[in-house]
Structure formats: C-alpha cells, structure tokens
Amino acid sequence: MRIGWFLRPLLVAVLLALVLRPEWFTPLLAPLAPENGPVIYTRASLLSLSLSHLALVAMASAAATVVAVTLAVLVTRPAGAAFRPLSRTITNMGQTFPPVAVLALAVPALGFGAGPTLVALFLYGLLPIFENAVTGLTNLPPATMEAARGIGLSRWQRLWRVELPLALPVTLTGIRLSVVIALGTATIGSTVAARTLGEVIIAGLLTNNTAFVVQGGLAVGLFAVLIYDAMVQLETRLARRMGG
C-alpha cells in the first residue's frame, strides 16, 4: 500500500512532464535517436494528441458500455434469455476481426479520420463489458432479490435500484478491461489520419527513430497504467460499499 501511495504520484508526475515538457527527456532519449536526427517529436503537441487519444477512447468506451449493458439486461430477462447465445456471438465478432481489418472496411464508408477508429474501438470493447454485465446480473444474491420483491418493487424498480447497483462492481471490471484495450488499440487509428499518440509511434517507425517510438509508447503505457489503477480503486470501493 505504501509503495502504491509513492508510485502513483511519481507516475503522474512523469506523465505530465512527458506530455507538457517533453524536451526535459532529451538527455534520456538522445541515444535512441538517429545521428543528427530529432530527439523529441515536434510535429504536433503531445498534449493535443493525448487529449484527442483519450477523447476517442472515452467516446468509444461510453458507447460500448451503453450497448453492452443494455444487451446484457435484455438477455438476462426471462423474455430475452433465448437470445443470449446470439448476443454472445454478436459481441464476439468485434474481437474476431482485427482492428486493422475494421479500419480498412470502415474507411470507404466513413472516410479518413476519427470515424473508423471509433467503430473499431467500439466493436473491440463490447465483449468484456457484455460478459461481465451478464455475470453480474445472473449472480445476484437470491435473498436480496426476494426481499426486493417482498417490499413491492416493480421489475423496473428492481432493475434500477437493486440489480444494476449490485452488478456494478463486476460490470466495472469489464469496462476497465475494455478501456485499457482501447487505449492501446487507439494508436493504430493514426494509420487512417485519426489524431492519437500512435502518430508519434508511426513517425518513429517510418524514420527509424526509436526515440519517437519510446516517447509515444511510454505516454500510452502510463495512461493505461494510471487509468487501470484508478478504476481498480473505484471497483474496490464499490465492492466494499456493496459488502463484497
């Protein structure tokens, strides 16, 4: 626990320095740059690329959460139970197709930019959220559900006041996994002109500049670690409040 309290502020400080003052890392990255080549990526602000990257992930994850949780609610009702295998197959399709293939298929319809990337991230994020939401909604304490019926709550009231809150910690685990996957996957969006931190990595690969690759990869990695840790803390607190 003490290590965590020390490590988190350190990682936040490193990330802020990398995004806001990348030139501070010149001495560390200089040995990785080509001779007489640039060390720090300057074609675009790392701050603007980071904000755009996070915005794409947030929009795709929010859409995936709404669709996946809604689908999970429908297939865990008696009337929709028969559609659970079909729903699982549909959400699995997002993981079956590689994101690069989704981008290639989406570009002719949506054009270059953020659109194809959002589609790829949305499809890729459905499965973990759906599976965890279904698990949470099908493993509710029978005594609690019986008590909710006993006090006269309707089906909708039981769903909103009892079922979804009790399933929230498990559902959040799926959302966490989806968000972390999206943070890494979003980098390929730069291949279709989306503004992400992948722009720095791709520029490094094209110019054989390892300093750029490390710079972009480190930023994405730090965002993933810190967001993952923040969501784990949130899940832990919710689980404690729910008595789990």
UniProtKB/TrEMBL annotation:
SUPFAM superfamilies: MetI-like (SSF161098)
InterPro entries named in the record: ABC_transp_perm/SBD (IPR051204), MetI-like (IPR000515), MetI-like_sf (IPR035906)
Annotated Pfam families: BPD_transp_1
Domain annotation ABC transmembrane type-1: ranges: 50-235
Stretches that traverse the bilayer: 49-75, 96-115, 164-192, 212-232
Major location category of this protein: membrane
Subcellular location as annotated: Cell membrane
Record keywords: Membrane, Transmembrane, Transmembrane helix, Transport
Domain of life: Bacteria
Topology in membrane: Multi-pass membrane protein
Membrane among keywords: yes
PANTHER family xref list: GLYCINE BETAINE UPTAKE SYSTEM PERMEASE PROTEIN YEHW, GLYCINE BETAINE/L-PROLINE TRANSPORT SYSTEM PERMEASE PROTEIN PROW
Similarity field: Belongs to the binding-protein-dependent transport system permease family.
Protein name according to UniProt: ABC transporter permease
Taxonomic source organism: Sulfitobacter faviae
